[in-house]
Write a structure and sequence with these properties.
716 residues; alpha+beta; Beta-galactosidase, Chain A, domain 5; Glycosyl hydrolase family fold; 2 domains; 9-stranded antiparallel sheet; 19 helices; 29% helix
Length: 716
Amino acid sequence: MRILRYFACLAVYALLASCSRDGREPVDYVNPYIGNISHMLVPTFPTVQLPNSMLRVYPERADYTSEYLNGLPVIVTNHRERSAFKLSVTAGEVRSSVIPLSYDNERITPYSYSVTLADGAIDARYAVSHQSAMYDFVSDSPLKLVLTSLGGTVGTGDDGFFGTQTVYGDTKVYVYMQTLQKPAAVETPDSGSVVLSFAENSVRLRYGVSFISTGQARANLLRELDGYDIDALEKEGRRIWNETLSRFSVKGGTPDERTVFYTSCYRTFERPVCMSEDGRYWSAWDSSVHEDGGRPFYTDDWIWDTYRAAHPLRVLTDSRMEEDILNSFLLMASEGGDMWMPTFPEVSGDSRRMNCNHAIASFADAIAKGLDVDVENACIASYKALKEKTLAPWSGKPAGELDRFFWAEGYVAALRPGEAETDPVVDSFEKRQPVAVTLGTAYDCWCMSRIAKEAGNEELAGYFDEFSRCYSNLFNPATLFFHPKDKDGNFIEDVDYNAPGGLGAREYYDENNAWVYRWDVQHDIPGLIALMGGNDSFCSELDRMFATPMGRGKYQFYAQLPDHTGNVGQFSMANEPSLHIPYLYNYAGAPWKTQKRIRQMLTTWFRNDLMGVPGDEDGGGLSSFVVFSALGFYPVTPGSTEYAIGSPVFPEASVRLANGKHFRIVARGASAENKYIQSARLNGKRLERPFISHDDIMSGGLLELVMGPRPSAGAF
C-alpha cells in the first residue's frame, strides 16, 4: 500500500511541476476574489473549504466593498446564502453579541484565511479541515471571544463550549469549540451567546461542526484535529487542494489565463457537499439521521445550473463521486416519500427552485457514459418527477391543471395579458414560464427516454422520445422564435422578444429573453436547424443574436432582466441556458464561428479581477463552462456521449481521468490571436468533424490542433 501511495504521489508532483513555467503549484493560481463584486445580483464569495466538504466559510460581509465584517465565519449552511453562528473577537469591551469588525490586510486561499481586525488591534488566522477548523488570534491586549447563535442556543461543557442553530425547518447545525488557553472567565449573558475572557494576548481555538448533534460535532473535531497545530492544518489543506486541482495540467497561456482557469476549477469543486459524519448523515427529506452504508451522502447542488457542465466534468475526473452524488439523489427521492427526483437539493431539503427536472439529465449522462447507477430506481424517480410532481416552476406540489394540459397538448399554455391564473400550484411571482418549461421538459423527456431504454422499458422509452419533440409546438415559423401560445393554440400577440413577459420574462420565459430560449433544444439540434431553414439560416440567426443591441437603455433592460447580464448583443453569458449556444455553429457547418465566440466570451466576461464573473456563480454552473472551454471542448448535450470542440486557450493541457489515464490536448501556436483551428487530428488521424466522443477521451486520447489567426473552413 505504501508503495502504491508513493507512486501516486510521484504522479501528482509530476503534474504539479508541469502545470506552468514559473514553478507555482495549481492552488497558487486560485484567486478567490474573482467576481466578489457582482454586475447585478449575487457576487461570488471567497470560500475557504476543502473540495466538496461540509465545512465552508467566507468573510461575513455583503461583498468585497463592505466596510465591516459582521463577526467571523463559523459555517456556511447554504451556498452563498446562509451562514450559521457568529464568532466575535475583541481586545476591548463586549458591547453586543455580534461585534462589527473593521478589517485590513486580508489574505484568502481555498484552504486558509488571515486578516487584521479592529484597526490593527488583532491578527487572526484560520485553516480548515472537512468538518473542523482552527482559529489563531493575536493581540497586544487580553482577548475576549463571543459565540452567538441566531435562532438557537449556546452552552458550556467540561472541555469546551457549544452552540445549536436552526437552519430551516427541522434542520439544525451544531458546533463544538475548544480553546488551547483556558478562559479566565465565562459569561452567558443570554441563552444565545457566551463570552470567554482570557488573560492571554494569544488564543488558539478549534471547533467541529455537525448536522446531527453537539456530540457528533465534538466527535468530528476530535477525529480530524489531534492538537492545535494550525500550520500543519494549513499545509494539509494546501496538499488536498493541489491534489484536486492537479487533475488538470496546463502549459503556456498568460498568468491571468492560468488564474482564471484554476479559479474556475476551485469554484467547480465547491459543491455539492458531503454530509456523511462517521457513517451517518442528516436527511432533511424525512427529518431523520440515516446510516450511509459506506457511501457518502451529498447535497446542496443546484441542478438547474450544474447539470450542464459541472456534473459532466465530474463524470470525466471523479466518476466514483458522481455515482455517489446520483445515489444521494435517489436517497432523497426515497426519503421524501414520493419518489420524486430532486431538482434543487439543499442542506435543509429540496427548495424546488427554478424549473424542470434536470437531475434526469445527469442520470442520462452518467448512464450513457458507463457509470454504475441504479437504473431501475432512476427510471422510477424520473417518471414520477415528470408525471406526478407539477411542472410549475418553484413548486413541489402534485401535478395540476397546468400539467394535465401539457401532457395532453404538448406545451404549457400561456396566459393572455390580464388573464387570471387558475392553477393554485403556480407561484404568484415565478408565473408559468410556459416557453422555458416546455423546452426544458422536452429535453427532460429525451433524457427520460434514454433512461427507460436502459431500464428495458421500450414502450416508455418510445413514449418519452416522441414527447421530446414537443418543443416544436411553440415554434413560430413567421419569426423563427419559440413563442408562447394560449390554451386555444393561438400565439400570444405583441410579444417583445427583447423584453417579454414582465419581471425576469417569467410570464413567458425565465430570467432570459426570447433570444436565449430560441436555442434551448439541446437534445435535437438537427431538428432545430431544420425548423430554422437549414444551416445558413441557422448560422445567420445566431449571428443576428450577437449583433442585435438591447433595444433600450441599460437601466430599463436590467430593471426587467437582472439575470440577463454579460451581454454580447442579445446573448447573455451570465445565465446558464446560454452556455451551449456558442458551440451551436459546429452543428451547422461553421466551427470557426464557435471558435471566435468562445474566445470572445472567455476574454470579455471571465477575467482575473473583482468583476470577473458576469453573473451568479451558482456553485460551478458558470465556472465549469470556463474549465471545459479553456481546455477546448464542451458537453453540449448531457445524456449524449459527444463533445463539441471549441478553441483551446493553452498550447498544452492534460486531464487526469477517473480511470487513471490522461486525455491530452495539444493546440500548437494557441494564443489570443491564434484562436482558429487550422487542422485537427485525434490519435494521429485527421478529425473529420468538430466533435470527439466520450470513449475518445476516456481511452486516454491525444487531440492535436494547429492554431492560426484566421478562420479555416477546411480544418475539419
